[in-house]
Design a protein that fits this description.
Chains A, B: Keywords: Aminotransferase, Pyridoxal phosphate, Transferase. Chains A, B: Its cofactor is pyridoxal 5'-phosphate. Chains A, B: Belongs to the class-V pyridoxal-phosphate-dependent aminotransferase family. Chains A, B: One of its GO terms (biological process) is glycine biosynthetic process, by transamination of glyoxylate. The structure is a homodimer of 387-residue chains. By secondary structure, chain A is α/β, with parallel strands linked by helices. Chain A has two domains: 120 residues, Aspartate Aminotransferase, domain 1; 251 residues, Type I PLP-dependent aspartate aminotransferase-like (Major domain) (Aspartate Aminotransferase, domain 2). Helices cover 40% and strands 15% of the residues of chain A. The first copy, chain A, contains 13 helices and 14 strands. In chain A, the strands form four sheets. Chain A has a seven-stranded mixed β-sheet with strand order 2-10-9-8-5-3-4, with helices on both faces. In chain A, strands 11-14-13 form a three-stranded antiparallel β-sheet, with helices on one face. In chain A, helix 3 packs across helix 4, helix 5 runs parallel beside helix 6 and helix 11 crosses helix 13. Chains A and B meet through helix 3, helix 4 and helix 9 of A and helix 3, helix 4 and helix 9 of B.
Chain lengths: 387, 387
């Protein structure tokens, strides 16, 4: 454990995650004007670092960093990139598909959900068929649904959309994927990836981070009605982001200065190494977790290897055990996992987040410790229940 | 300067403001689950502390703490407490009246602005007349407009509204007033006070804080159309806030955990003393600043004493001087003021924020140092310009 943090159980839920010491300390920066040159530089550089995070060099792509939760990213999409009466196709792989759909519907967008059974994902064939049935303004893909740990094949879906319905904007909810799952924004020809600061990016929660393609910005600019939100309006934020990145102060709403410092630190750390290395480290850690889960005779919600996330694992508990039987035993061993979130089966599974410093700082031994704790806590719980 | 912060110029803009050491350090708390008992307690207590901040004991009043900028509070009002086609009366005392009006209009609300000349405020007579001309669903009052330093008499306006148009919701933009200007939420019978974390509350920016009356919640519940925002929806947040305050975990979007820790610390400090003492301290500091401004032969944007804010002072520069002539001289002396913000006269004035620890921690001498620096910087600037 880093020396400046008090001893504490290791947070291995699928976000928020453990903080690197330097990231945490960045927030203790003294007060600065949000329009003063020092902070303008930090904010401007953070925007450029977001481009690097997404491996994007496209001058028409536009990053946004806005005070808010990841959820705010849905409003940014729904209130700017679709209009009342437009059609949206939502690929549903868990809780967050329903929520994104609810957000789109709030703004009058008609939603068709393509739902996979729990633990599965819509196939490319099903998606192709759906795309042929209606003209969709946007398709939304939860890259990793935090409620199920199901990973979507964003690259293939984006290629399919470009082939079948080239005008449809490809929107990726990357809250549980950015920083741990491969994303090549330009190369995959994505239109929006929205995320939050507190998962694999390793920053405290409180920032909504959105990357838009030139095509997405064009869609915004060609709206026939004004944007349907004020705080989430691309029009209100676009000049601000462009100005800050050009190191010019600008004001629409006060940025979360201390969180931006933390973001700057963590993105500097992340992008100092090739992103491919970071993705590989998460894949390796995930493979170890998945192997241990199999060894324990347990199964994952995500039923097929190709649809299993690399930053988290959703694990079915043995029959007869519920999260409250196991989580306290983990806590006793200094490890925090999350309970289930998918409402239909919430009492049947637990979630293990393996992202950020717990993966990349191997000296912490977080993953091995957690696997050992899981083994012991399960054995203890089974014994207590006479299983 | 507190020992744990690096030496730095004193931030005396009208927000963000200087941080108390303990508040800043609170953000270095190790990572916690947003639904774990430790954080649930901190968040729940913070909500209760918001009630104390507003001197409210009404069980039907409801505080909200949401990741976002103060601006988000406008969307919360506009998308929940008014419906498309409703009428709103906006009292305009500067930049923020126009912005709140723009936000309301985004959601289809018809806005009538009652504009006072720069530095003045609409009179009670004018407000009474406006209220009699139309049936308004909401009236919005910028308690202190950060662009002009003009203070509105919220207590008298609220009483007037109750007498003339009792169904009109009284909405106060308290971004630049909560924590330094007197507000008695229940006693004044207010419906909404929205604010942000980074001004007189003394927390870093990134939290939108909104206090709603039972009448406001009833208005939300009796909408004939669904709320017009997802992230800003009272319906989405209300059960979350109620659960956290009852110390039950709940999830809609991940809260900004580290900022909530900072908020808890600063609200604990603030509410440990009677609020009246805090308001008096800000009035005394403000009186000293205003006396010094007068002594320098300068005038304020806020032309009448009763309409002058107590947490900031907007000061007209001597003819021939612009902010870039004076601000660097202040910076050289370790003091940061803000330039003008009101677009019509931005080059003619500067803004001095006197809130929070710079006022209450008198051992810092921030106010006296700033007054001395202002005197010297002005003299220097005049000499340089041959004035």
């Amino acid at each position: 454990m880093p020396s400046s943090q008090a001893p504490h159980p290791t947070l291995l839920i699928p976000g928020p995650i453990e903080f690197d010491d330097a990231v945490l300390q960045s927030m203790s920066h003294h007060a600065e004007s949000h329009v003063g040159p020092a902070f303008v530089k930090v904010f401007g550089e953070s925007l450029t670092l977001v481009r690097k995070l997404f491996q994007s060099t496209s001058p028409t792509a536009q990053p946004f960093i806005i005070a808010g939760s990841g959820t705010l990213g849905w409003d940014i999409v729904a209130s700017n990139l679709a209009e009342k009466g437009d059609e949206a196709l939502v690929l549903h792989t868990g809780y967050f598909g329903d929520s994104f759909a609810a957000c789109l519907e709030t703004y009058g967008v008609h939603v068709t959900q393509l739902k996979a059974p729990i633990g599965e994902r819509p196939s490319l064939g099903e998606i192709e068929q759906a795309l042929k049935e209606k003209s969709y303004k946007v398709i939304t893909i939860t890259h990793v649904d935090t409620s199920t740990g199901v990973l979507n094949d964003v690259k293939s879906i984006a290629a399919l959309v470009r082939r079948i319905s080239p005008e449809t904007l490809v929107v990726v909810d990357g809250v549980c994927s950015v920083g741990c799952e491969e994303i090549a924004f330009d190369e995959w020809d994505l239109d929006v990836v929205l995320t939050a600061s507190q998962k694999a990016i390793g920053c405290p929660p409180g920032l909504s981070i959105v990357m838009c393609s030139g095509r997405a910005i064009d869609r915004y600019n060609s709206r026939s009605t004004p944007p349907a939100s004020f705080y989430a309006s691309i029009g209100n934020w676009l000049p601000i982001m462009q100005n800050y990145e050009s190191l010019k102060p600008s004001y629409f709403a006060t940025p979360a200065t201390q969180l931006v410092h933390a973001l700057h630190t963590t993105l500097s750390q992340i992008t100092a190494r090739p992103m491919a290395e970071r993705f590989a480290a998460h894949t390796q850690a995930s493979d170890r977790v998945k192997a241990a889960v199999a060894e324990l005779g347990l199964s994952q919600l995500a039923s097929k290897p190709e649809s299993q996330a690399h930053g988290m694992t959703a694990i079915y508990l043995p029959s007869g055990l519920a999260p409250p039987d196991v989580l306290p035993g983990l806590m006793k061993r200094g490890v925090i996992f999350a309970a289930g979130l998918h409402k239909e089966i919430a009492t049947k599974y637990i979630r293990f987040g393996h992202m950020g410093v717990s993966v990349t700082d191997t000296g912490r031994n977080d993953i091995d410790n957690a696997i050992a704790a899981l083994k012991e806590a399960l054995a203890e719980a089974k014994q207590a229940k006479g299983l």
